[in-house]
UniProtKB/TrEMBL annotation:
Organism in which the protein naturally occurs: Denitratisoma oestradiolicum
A Gene Ontology molecular function term of the record: 3-oxoacyl-[acyl-carrier-protein] synthase activity
SUPFAM superfamilies noted in UniProt: Thiolase-like
Beta-ketoacyl-[acyl-carrier-protein] synthase III N-terminal domain boundaries: 108-173
Example of a GO biological process term: secondary metabolite biosynthetic process
Gene3D superfamilies registered for this protein in UniProt: 3.40.47.10
Source organism superkingdom: Bacteria
Protein name: 3-oxoacyl-(Acyl carrier protein) synthase
Length: 331
């Protein structure tokens, strides 16, 4: 890939509501927590927190970190699952309005589960290359803890799914200094796993939930957990191999979705990178869905300069991606 189509990471920002111990939340809901082995804490949204408000807070922080004015934005991609209202309400456009982006900026909502941030980086790279460069923003925000039945043992794997937001300001062919460079990503899809985690009600197939049901509850459907582990292992390994083949670089450090504590140990074995070289935010935040990847990126960039390649690894049950983050080009 030519340097002209490499995406500069200019700045990052996050918004995280207060965290609570997962076992405390589940016990209050009446669950037996004696066998729980997941992330110890989870962020739960405050009453006034919504995807657009949390996302706007994260983007304002990212713009300040980048030293970029809102009127420079040409594209705002919102890549979260959660939304304030059903479409055609645009979370991206609401965030644009809150942050002061102007009419020459396009706000676009895209949804691909927890793979959203990596997909949005890839999309911003292509969009800016096609449109002659400029500045774009990627925003991810989730408010989904309320969709989890914390009293259900069947939902134990979802107890640590938490709320929050993250953002990155990116650019191509501008004078702004880069903190890191996004080279690109490779993806693989297993389409038969679509609907593995399902919000059953609210769409055209089941518009209204029956009386007494939580219309927003997420359900684990279909495949056994053993099969899911095997399929995830293949998805992560195949996308990583495609990325390494494309760029000829094998990163030794990882920024990844914080799906579950034990799950990351499995992925570490599959891709043959020690878990000690994974950047972990799950112990403090839980799994914040699409926001995880940029929360990790923000932590890495705020800890010091990027000096080596990082694997950006991300997934949703039916799709997997591996991206390459590099140190900024000298000069």
């Amino acid at each position: 890939m030519s340097t002209e189509t490499t995406l500069s990471i200019l700045g990052s920002g996050i918004y995280l509501p207060p965290a609570r111990p997962v076992c405390e939340v589940a016990a209050e809901a009446g669950a037996d927590v004696s066998n729980y082995q997941g992330w110890p804490n989870v962020c739960h949204a405050l009453a006034e927190d919504h995807p657009s408000t949390m996302g706007a807070t994260a983007l304002k922080a990212a713009l300040a970190d980048a030293g970029v004015a809102p009127d420079e934005l040409r594209l705002v991609l919102f890549a979260g699952i959660s939304r304030d209202y059903l479409p055609s309400f645009s979370v991206a456009t609401e965030i644009m309005q809150s942050c002061g982006a102007q009419g020459h900026c396009l706000g676009l909502d895209m949804t691909i589960g927890c793979l959203g941030a990596l997909s949005a980086l890839d999309m911003a790279q292509g969009w800016l290359a096609t449109h002659g460069g400029g500045v774009a923003a990627i925003v991810t925000a989730e408010r989904w803890s309320y969709t989890v039945d914390h009293g259900s043992m069947a939902s134990m794997g979802l107890w640590a799914h938490g709320d929050g937001a993250s953002a990155a300001v990116v650019a191509m062919d501008t004078p702004h200094p880069a903190k890191a460079m996004f080279r690109g990503a490779e993806f693989t899809t297993q389409s038969d796993l679509n609907g593995t985690v399902l919000v059953k009600y609210g769409g055209t197939r089941h518009p209204v939930a029956p009386a007494g049901a939580n219309p927003a509850e997420r359900l684990f459907m279909g495949s056994s957990r053993a099969d899911i582990r095997e399929r995830y292992a293949y998805g992560y390994s195949s996308s990583l191999e495609a990325m390494k083949k494309r760029f000829g670089i094998a990163p030794k450090r990882v920024i990844i979705n914080q799906t579950a504590a034990l799950f990351l140990h499995l992925i570490a074995q599959v891709i043959n990178i020690p878990i000690e070289d994974f950047l972990l935010t799950g112990p403090e935040t839980g799994h914040v869905g699409s926001a995880d990847l940029l929360i990790g990126l923000d932590r890495m960039l705020k800890s010091g300069p990027c000096h080596e390649p990082y694997l950006l690894a991300s997934s949703t049950p039916y799709a997997f991606g591996a991206g390459l983050l590099m140190p900024p080009t000298p000069g």
